[in-house]
Amino acid sequence: MAQKKIALACSVCGSRNYIIAANPTRQERLEVKKFCKYCNKHTLHRETR
């Protein structure tokens, strides 16, 4: 069975740079500081659904 995928979107430019596996037990949206290649710096990335 394939896992459901969720994208992480940059909070500055809005580009969806990262794909992660969905975790059904997580109640809140994931927020992680990651590198955005379009902004060329580390920014906050939020889980999209």
TrEMBL record:
Sample GO molecular function, one term: structural constituent of ribosome
Alphabetized Pfam families for the sequence: Ribosomal_L33
GO biological process, one term: translation
Keyword tags: Ribonucleoprotein, Ribosomal protein
Ranges in a coiled coil: none
InterPro entries reported for this sequence: Ribosomal_bL33 (IPR001705), Ribosomal_bL33_sf (IPR038584), Ribosomal_zn-bd (IPR011332)
GO cellular component: cytoplasm; ribonucleoprotein complex; ribosome
NCBIfam families in the record: PRK00504.1, PRK00595.1, rpmG_bact
Similarity section: Belongs to the bacterial ribosomal protein bL33 family.
Name this polypeptide is given: Large ribosomal subunit protein bL33
Organism listed in the record: Liquorilactobacillus hordei DSM 19519
Gene transcribed to yield this protein: rpmG
